[in-house]
Amino acid sequence: MNLTSRVLNFIRKEGLVKPGSLLVLGVSGGADSVFLAHCLHRLRHELSVRLHIAHFNHRLRKSSDRDQKFVEDLARHLNVPITVANRRGHLGFPKLSEDAARRKRFAFFAKVAAATGAEAVVLAHTANDLAETVVMRLLRGTGLYGLRGILAQRRMGDVTFIRPLIGVTRSSIESYLRKHKLDHCVDETNARPVYLRNKVRLELMPYLSRLNPRIHSVLVDMAHTALDDYDYLEAQARQRLKESVVSSSQRVKIRIKNFTASHPSLRRLLLRLAFERLAGDTRQLTRAHVLGVEDMVKGGPCGAEVHWPRSVVVTRTRDFIEIHL
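^ thats the sequence. predicted structure below, dont judge the formating
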């Protein structure tokens, strides 16, 4: 089976795309995103979708403007509309952290999706990115939620992000581009261990591959197992949430009796889901935040408070844990 057919099968199996949708493709000009653009352009009729390319120029490198022109030329060649944005400031200044650059890029993609009425934003993360993300989260400390790695589909705010290449390896993409003589840009900073991801990719993964040549597959399989297990726990927690919660748009009240009778995994997931209900997602909520509430419930007096990110406050009353804005 050729690579585009594998991507098509994955999209259909996961239900990532609805017929008639407009999709915004995040294209940097690198190998993965160039393949994404060519692949979905080839599949657009089979999927019954329309495409719109989005490119964000971070202006971090001397080659940033070259990459932008390449993507603009690619869009013109494919006859696909394109939206481009540039970060203000001269080339190379000021520097951005990897997370800050990602937030700016995702905010831009969300803006383009809203402006065009797109059904989803499509990103070019691969199986290699999934494996590297699992390793990075292990290094930083994580649980079942983090071990899921990068999801094929995720709702963030008002935007759905999909990743149809998450089952495809970087080497297979590079082989495809060579076979079809398709050019792409090369980010020279990817060859330098500057960011943590680069250090994992360039130094740690090769070392782990010597210990286990199948390390990428092992990590991807582990992520899939974690996803299945988390989905089950989340379903149980959502049911428990219905049974033990009184909620409104700005307040969630969990009955302490039901909370303390639950398994620790369900208790922590209940708190995450309550935070998600108020904040829209669980970004910035850490294990320490959740454990702080558990400690308060065990030994805190009535009226005790724990402050969570995004102006969310957790208060202990006699019978309830009240989570509110």
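The first helix runs from residue 3 to 14.
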